[in-house]
Design a protein that fits this description.
By secondary structure, this protein is an alpha/beta fold. The protein has one domain (17-228): Rossmann fold (3-Layer(aba) Sandwich). The chain has helices spanning 17-23, 28-31, 46-52, 68-85, 101-126, 160-173, 193-199, and strands spanning 35-39, 56-61, 127-129, 142-148, 174-181, 207-212, 223-228. It has a seven-stranded mixed β-sheet. Strand 1, helix 3 and strand 2 (56-61) form a beta-alpha-beta unit. Helix 3 crosses helix 5 and helix 4 (68-85) packs antiparallel against helix 5 (101-126). The longest helix is centred in the middle third of the chain and has 26 residues, at 101-126. The structure holds S-adenosylmethionine (SAM).
């Protein structure tokens, strides 16, 4: 069996509002008066679904310069590429939620279809092209920032300095709390960078907490890192 999920760069795979709610242990009452950023939101349907519920969410990604046609082609190709590689490594995953590869496909297709419709309609208002580690946002622009499947996961492609600069940037642009999920990497192991980041003297005024959440696809990958900003 391969020793890791072998992908060469971050891919445009999207998750739904329901998956985000579980991964980040989100409560509507916490979100409802907050200004929220989905960093590295990609083709997730979290932003359109949340906005439909009346929440104030923006999404940021380096791929938002793409036209809808280019983006749809990329996310279809990335989804097929991911699904082709999955059978060889499926033992590393828990299938309670998705059941099988087809179940997983339907979640991912639902996410990108909802996203694509909104991207065509609301690109100017909600989808900001920018990228970590240095973004276009002002200091404390958002109350809450969520980062799903970008930091820690790709620790063999994005080095420690990238993580250090990115977390500093997220602290700069966030007023209240940052949540990051997952904290396992493509080798299905807890990313070593997590403990190094928590111990960084530069972040000693922040409150770090690793929380168990009600979402586990990678076996053992049911933890979210919360960073409370003081
Ligand atoms: C695996 S996808 C996750 C998408 C979404 N967060 C989700 O969980 O459904 C990773 C996303 O991170 C984006 N990305 C990669 N490098 C980035 C960077 N330096 N800054 C912002 N986004 C980045 C990719 O374009 C891609 O859309």
């Amino acid at each position: 069996m391969p020793e890791k999920f072998d992908i060469k760069e971050t891919i445009a795979i999207g998750r739904t509002f329901d998956e985000y709610s579980r991964m980040f242990d989100l409560r509507f009452t916490w979100l409802k008066n907050a200004s929220i950023l989905d960093m590295g939101g990609g083709v997730s349907s979290f932003t359109p679904e949340a906005c439909e519920l009346g929440l104030n969410v923006k999404s940021c990604d380096r791929i938002y310069g793409f036209t809808p046609e280019e983006l749809e082609a990329k996310c279809r190709a990335d989804l097929e590429g991911m699904l082709e590689k999955l059978p060889a490594v499926r033992k590393n995953y828990l299938w309670d939620l998705y059941k099988d590869e087809e179940g997983l496909r339907s979640y991912r297709e639902k996410a990108y279809k909802i996203f694509m419709e909104d991207y065509r309609k609301s690109r100017e208002n909600r989808y900001i092209r920018s990228e970590l580690p240095f973004t276009v946002f002002t200091d404390k622009e958002f109350d809450i920032t969520l980062v799903s499947h970008l930091l820690f996961l790709y620790d063999e492609h994005l080095d420690y300095d990238f993580h250090l600069d990115s977390i500093a940037e997220l602290i700069r642009i966030t007023k209240e709390e940052i949540r990051i999920f997952p904290i396992v990497n493509l080798r299905w192991k807890k990313a070593e960078f997590v403990d190094r980041i928590i111990r960084e003297p530069a972040f000693d005024r922040c409150g770090f907490e690793i929380k168990k959440v009600d979402f586990e696809f990678v076996k053992g990958g049911n933890e979210c890192l919360s960073i409370k900003i003081s």
